[in-house]
Design brief:
paralog of FGE (formylglycine-generating enzyme); alpha+beta; globular; 346 residues
Length: 346
């Protein structure tokens, strides 16, 4: 079969890619889901302060994983100018997941154990630099510079302190606002009936506190179930061990998704948000070492954006269409071409 080299195909494909933006998230396997129903009301349980979002957007279906963050480190942090790697990622056995060997200028990173667990020991600034890296097309070998981690979704240019930085107007990937995170976690456009809409108390489509048994049960999450036996999710024991890894792989609670099909917005790791409270940034959703009071929509937190802990990770929001939308547009472009071409036999 003769190879089709028509320049029109190249023009249309280039136009489609320009329209969609490069699919940076596909390279590391980071998946987004669409959050529609723009213009939903704020949650009355918050005094009608939070949850309403006046536009459609996408949000990470899962937390950023160890595999994804290790790929990021390997791409930009051979020198690690801005301390994107915390050594506790290798030594804190409660959440250990990434090792670093070699010396500055030639650091090598490797995942420890199950790379589908969420990354921890990341500051708000680490998450912002990860966002920039995605926005800039995931360059490799440039280091932590303007075309890689320092500019893009956020203009950091070396900043590692303060809370005044906000996302740029052209951001394609960013740390979710409190409302964006909150809506994806607790809002259900069909709660109360098709098209009615309302909020659940927990990010498991439930008004009852979840259990914490890993697997396919409904209304489950990775947290300390302190409503009865005070047990950790992974061990189902009330005993704490310094040598036990308490993280679960993202999506491990397979039938406990939100209405928008996100996972682990309650439990596993706290998520950074863009919310600013005094000198702190927002934390959402609770973690593996949280009690039940941290999980509900009312139980949010905040902390210094430079803090890095064994129970703090992140997910991102995006304006980039889901892959299914991208494929549909490309297929539409192909259909347009086929209608312009003369039919030919295969």
């Amino acid at each position: 079969m003769k190879k089709n080299t028509s320049p029109l195909i190249g023009i249309v494909l280039a136009g489609m890619l320009a329209l969609l933006g490069t699919s940076a998230s596909a390279d590391i396997g980071y998946q987004f889901v669409s959050v529609g129903n723009a213009g939903n009301a704020n949650d009355s349980a918050t005094g009608s302060l939070y949850g309403g979002v006046g536009y459609n957007y996408s949000i990470g279906q899962y937390d950023v994983t160890l595999n994804q963050y290790a790929t990021f480190l390997s791409a930009v942090a051979q020198t690690d100018t801005h301390a994107l790697y915390n050594p506790n990622l290798a030594t804190d056995l409660n959440s250990a997941g990434i090792s670093r060997t070699g010396s500055s200028g030639s650091y090598i990173y490797a995942v420890i154990g199950n790379g589908l667990r969420p990354v921890t020991y990341v500051s708000w600034f680490d998450a912002a630099r990860f966002s920039n890296w995605l926005q800039n097309g995931q360059p490799t070998g440039l280091g932590e510079v303007a075309g890689s981690t320092e500019e893009g979704a956020y203009t950091l240019d070396g900043a590692n302190t303060g809370v005044s930085i906000s996302k740029n107007s052209n951001a394609s990937y960013w740390i979710p606002s409190k409302n964006e995170w909150y809506k994806a976690a607790y809002y259900d456009p069909n709660k109360g009936g098709p098209g009615v809409g309302g909020y659940w108390t927990y990010a498991t489509k439930s008004n009852s506190a979840p259990g914490n048994v890993v697997g396919g049960g409904t209304n489950q999450a990775n947290y300390v179930n302190d409503l009865g036996a005070d047990v950790y999710s992974v061990t189902q024991s009330s005993s704490y061990s310094t040598s036990q890894n308490y993280l679960t792989p993202v999506g491990a609670f397979t039938n406990s998704a939100t209405a928008y099909s996100t996972y682990d917005q309650n439990g596993d790791v706290w998520n950074w948000s863009d919310a600013i409270t005094g000198s702190s940034r927002g934390l959402q959703g609770g973690a593996w070492d949280s009690g039940a009071s941290n999980l509900p929509s009312a139980g949010q937190n905040s902390i210094d954006p430079t803090f890095e802990g064994h129970d703090i990770g992140f997910r991102l929001a995006s304006s980039v269409p889901e892959p299914t939308v991208a494929v549909s547009l490309i297929l539409a472009g192909g259909l347009l071409l086929s209608r312009r071409k003369r039919p030919s036999a295969l």
